[in-house]
Amino acid sequence: MPSLINYLGLTALLAHEMDAVQAREWRLLYVLRGLPEAVAYPAFLLLHLPMIFLLLWLSHHPARRIRRGFRLLAAGFLVVHAGLHARLADHPLNGFEGVVSNGLIAAAGLCGGLYLLLRYLGRAGPERRNAGHEPARPAALVWSSTLDSPS
């Protein structure tokens, strides 16, 4: 279940980032908001390349410890990100309007919080007690198993 919540949160974040282009989110970001539109927009877009790469790579990393650590970090980010958007809701340059835009932000934050809660509640469960004692798997199975893995 936590993996499903993780994927839902990351999916909502990625959809929000697509919406962020339409909402011109770079106008709210400290470094980019002082730049001319012709520079800020491509910079905002290109900064998403390493972000999305790292999100995909680390959330499916073959090392369970890295994968779990990243998922915890990403969940925390989703909560903080939603809080920042709530704080900036009345900012004059905030272009996020309506149920869809704000729903994506809220959904990502809720998924992040739920993931953290499930991980906290499950830290003494059977999965945690067996941590580090799982049998080795061929590398080819790691990718497909991360989709079904409870981590």
Overall description:
With 151 residues, this protein is mostly helical. α1 runs antiparallel to α2. It has one domain. It has six helices and no strands. The termini are close together. About 3% of the residues have low confidence.
The fraction of residues in strands falls at: under 5%
Based on helices, strands and strand pairing, what is the structural class? mainly alpha
C-alpha termini separation: 9 Å
Shape: globular
How many domain units? 1
State the total count of DSSP E strands: 0
Uncertain segments are 139-143
- Report Rg: 18 Å
The topology string of helices and strands comes to HHHHHH
Assembly state (oligomeric): single chain
Helical proportion, percent range: over 70%
Q: How many distinct helices?
A: 6
What secondary-structure arrangement, pairings included, does this model have?
Layout: H1 2-23, H2 37-59, H3 64-87, H4 98-121, H5 126-129, H6 139-148
Helix pairs in contact: 1-2, 1-3, 1-4, 3-4
Q: Gist?
A:
With 151 residues, the chain is mainly alpha-helical.
